[in-house]
């Protein structure tokens, strides 16, 4: 696992070096992209890095599998390549608003169940335009929500992660880890992923698909749901039983914005 992580970082750095040489973008040519750094209290002149807001759109299919959205970059660097939706933070703009702008402008997504910040990425060679810091968000999207981005199954995303530009492979890896560790431990996020109703089978499949764990052994999921204070059997169970039994959260509120 650690070897694969190091290998991805080496590949990402190599791609950024090639892009930097190809597009001939130097730090002193970035005046239009950032505010001047100025001089700090110690009298040292500093250049402020760019702040990038990168979003990992996620949705759970009706079968319980998880998908991620990528879009084709319209501008250099890495024009024409598939990437996570992201934007540079504007002066005076809040990061949460920038995340919504990235979803709207790059992925065509206007509605989400939740937007959750999960990490900060500051690899020094992550961007050929110069030093940047990425603040990363998960955006949980309901199935069927309109989008212009391409939805990619989790297995396919893992397979093509090394081809993503910037350090998006590391961001994707961080998104997987965030979902796997927060699933069921973070109830609002879990509600956003499962939706208002879900089946025992979908719950087990979701955990397996993301590399996480169900709240208990799959054979004991029904017992665990029965004992959960905020989960109940869904009203319509016609023809359903066993792992196809459907469950519902006792209230409909599933939003989780950070």
From TrEMBL:
One of its GO terms (molecular function) is hydrolase activity. SUPFAM superfamilies: Nudix (SSF55811). InterPro entries: NUDIX_hydrolase-like_dom_sf. CDD domains: NUDIX_NadM_like (cd18873). Keywords: Hydrolase. It comes from the Bacteria. This is NUDIX hydrolase.
């Amino acid at each position: 696992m650690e070897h694969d992580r190091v290998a991805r970082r080496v590949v990402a750095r190599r791609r950024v070096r090639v892009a930097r040489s190809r597009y001939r973008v130097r730090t002193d040519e970035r005046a239009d992209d950032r505010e001047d750094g100025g001089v700090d209290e110690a009298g040292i002149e500093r250049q402020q890095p760019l702040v990038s807001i990168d979003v990992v759109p996620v949705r759970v299919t009706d079968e319980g599998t998880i998908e991620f959205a990528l879009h084709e970059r319209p501008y250099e660097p890495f024009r024409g390549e598939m990437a996570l939706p992201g934007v540079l933070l504007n002066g005076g703009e809040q990061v949460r608003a920038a995340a919504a702008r990235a979803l709207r402008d790059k992925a065509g997504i206007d509605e989400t169940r939740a937007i959750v910040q999960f990490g900060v990425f500051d690899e020094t060679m992550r961007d050929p335009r110069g030093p940047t810091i990425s603040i990363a968000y998960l955006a949980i999207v309901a199935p069927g929500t309109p989008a212009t981005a391409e939805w990619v199954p989790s297995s396919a995303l893992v397979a093509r992660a090394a081809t993503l530009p910037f350090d998006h492979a590391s961001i994707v890896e961080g998104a997987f880890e965030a979902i796997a560790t927060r699933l069921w431990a973070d109830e609002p996020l879990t509600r956003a992923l499962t939706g208002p109703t879900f089946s025992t089978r979908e719950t087990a499949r979701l955990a397996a698909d993301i590399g996480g764990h169900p709240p208990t052994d799959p054979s004991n999921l029904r017992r665990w749901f029965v004992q959960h204070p905020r989960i109940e059997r869904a009203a319509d169970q016609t023809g359903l039983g066993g792992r196809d039994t459907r469950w519902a959260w006792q209230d409909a509120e599933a939003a989780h914005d950070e």
